[in-house]
Amino acid sequence: MAEPVLDIRNLSVNYLTPRGTVKALRRINLQVPSAKVVGLVGESGCGKSTLISTVIRLMAENARVAAGEIRFTGKDMQQLSPRDLRAIRGRDMSMVFQDPMTALNPVFTVGRQMADIQYRDAVSRKEKLKRASDMLSLVGIPDAVSRLDNYPHHFSGGMRQRITIAMALLVQPKLLIADEPTTALDATLEVQIIRLLKALQADFQCAILFISHHLNVIAELCDFVGVMYAGELVEKGSVRDIFHRPGHPYTRALLECDPSVIAEPTRFLPTIPGEIPSLIDLPEGCIFHDRCPRAAQVCKKTPPPEVSLAEHHTVACHCLEV
Amino acid sequence: MEPLLEVDNLRVRFKTKSAVKAFMEKDDDPYIDGVMGVSFAIEPGQTYGLVGESGSGKTTIARAVMGLIPVHSGAIRFNGENLVGLSRDRIKPFRRDIALMFQDPAGSLSPRLKIRSILAEPFRIHGMMPENLSDEVARLLKMVNLSPSMGDLYPHQLSGGQARRVGVARALALSPKLIIADEPTAGLDVSVQGEILNLMAQLQNDMGLSFLIITHNLAVVRHVSDHVAIMYLGRFLEQGPTQTVFHQMRHPYTQALLSAHASPDPDAVHHRISISGEIPGLVSRPRGCEFHTRCPGVREKCHRQFPPRADAGKDHRYFCHYPLSVPEN
């Protein structure tokens, strides 16, 4: 495999809080190959957002990288000066946020915002606006030229998310980070946005790091998937490995909980009993052991090894059924 | 069986401008229709699901049933008695029997009150203070599988799932007959979503409660509700027993919504019925059939005329000029 666009190695991130150190991410290893879509799934509090804010270095003030490194196109993100960082963000790496209602500036027209983000390019404003309107029609906004003069509140939610995607791709990034871009949208719009992302990704050949807790969307869009639980990447592999041959008990439980996979209507749905452990006082052994149906003695004592099941498919678990 | 709640041709309108402005602009109809003539009935111990995209009027129906917004026309009968037009005082007793679980669990719990006070409020408002309030609060917390010591916490100390349980406990406080649950699982993780739905199912078994569940999550509705209505711009485009609507749907919108929810399988072949565009606003309600702007099977007649009601079987109705043929099983 060629060198990945994004290479996260052994990353650990802590939050310093008055109640103690929250170990929000622990030993994360994740690669995003160029022109591939990598999905991250996990429930609230698993560290998805901490991971992306660390990648793009927009961390909270009390966040500290305790170990590991993040390499983006070979450069160590932690070592970059603010100036070098600025050159990367919004050019080689861009982002689509969860809430399209607040991602755009309400007091400027869409055209102005789309022209402004091309500030690095030495072309005329007319040319920038032309690019902006071309991009808007590409993401399926009808009558793009005249809509450049509209303000964000003139657009509906689905349209606004299309605009933020257009803006993110306008700079032709090498990596697009999408943080739950469809969560705030209705089902029929979600389908439209996923199709759009898929088509544009094929066109632009950019890599996407796609965060979602929506399994259907991940299955449809991604090439590789990482499953996070309580700050650890418990399993990663190709999308087929994860959905057809899940190894980790947490991945299995998560897939079984999805009401859309249960064919027969039932009044009682499966759940994962228990709660996420405290990230201040981490339990010994495997992070999932107190909720795991397969937990053995060894799981309570020793952290699980990373077991490779297939090429690219690794699982952190003691009790794999082989 | 006699229905517990019967909504008959309910219509809710919102005023869009003041009388003076409407007069000046010669606008003789300064209203938009939030809900346009919907009818449904919930029997005791049953669950009715309202499904639709944002802005389709689901929550408006819930608020009308609770008597929180004025009704333009139609009837809302609870246990045979029409609630429409009742004064504030006369409607209050019915609010003991109909409880509401709000959409945003954390936002609907006052941040300044402890859980114990939040759960005591319904009793206070209805002048039904039990003799031993703390026993009652503990009982409510236990019913939703929370420990009684949680009464001493503030809402911000709870997780999303716990806050949702407190919402359920508060709805249960006055032993209602009907609970309206507005998006009971929105914003919850899949593993927690099951817990809340299971809790609701269990309460229904134990206490014979009826539920009106409002959601845009079809996967959830399929499991929990007996009947379902598919809403679009304030109308029920299709309604009927859940199994029938899911497997013998006649309306293209139902089909499109269902096909948008694929199974999480990377190899699945999606037979998607693609519908383009977005739900038009209530202000610019399309003429004729409201769905015609997005319908894949639209024909000339759809632009002109709203389709008449068609009955496809027991309780199964839809509104479409050119319905889908029934799939053979």
The end-to-end span of chain A amounts to: 27 Å
The structural class of chain B is alpha/beta
Shape annotation of chain A: globular
Greatest interface (CB-CB under 8 A), with counts per chain: A-B, 42 and 42 residues
CATH topology of chain A: Rossmann fold
Counted up, domains of chain B total 1
Compact description:
The complex is a heterodimer of chains A (322) and B (329). Helices cover 31% and strands 24% of the residues of chain A. Chain A has helices at residues 48-55, 82-88, 110-116, 125-138, 144-147, 157-170, 187-204, 215-221, 239-244, 249-257, 297-301; strands spanning 6-17, 20-32, 37-41, 63-72, 75-76, 93-96, 175-179, 207-211, 224-229, 232-238, 306-310, 313-316.
What does this structure look like?
The complex is a heterodimer of chains A (322) and B (329). The radius of gyration of chain A is 21 Å and the shape is globular. In chain A, a hairpin with a 2-residue loop joins strand 4 (63-72) and strand 5 (75-76). Chain A contains eleven helices and twelve strands. The longest helix of chain A has 18 residues, at 187-204. Chain A has a single domain (6-99, 175-310), classed as P-loop containing nucleotide triphosphate hydrolases (Rossmann fold, 3-Layer(aba) Sandwich). In chain A, the strands form two sheets. In chain A, strands 6-7-8-3-9-10-12-11 form an eight-stranded mixed sheet, sandwiched between helices. Chain A has a four-stranded antiparallel sheet with strand order 2-1-4-5, covered by helices on one side. Chain A is 31% helix and 24% strand. Chain A is α/β, with parallel strands linked by helices. The mean pLDDT of chain A is 91. By secondary structure, chain B is an alpha/beta fold. Chain B has a single domain, classed as 3-Layer(aba) Sandwich (Rossmann fold), CATH 3.40.50.300. Chain B is built from eleven helices and twelve strands. The longest helix of chain B is centred in the middle third of the chain and has 18 residues, at 190-207. The model of chain B has no long low-confidence stretch (mean pLDDT 90). The A-B interface holds A 43-44, 156-159, 186-192, 213, 215-216, 218-220, 222, 239-240, 243-244, 253-255, 257-262, 265-272, 275 and B 53-54, 159-160, 189-195, 197-198, 201, 216-220, 222-224, 242-243, 256-257, 260-268, 270, 272, 274-276, 278-279.
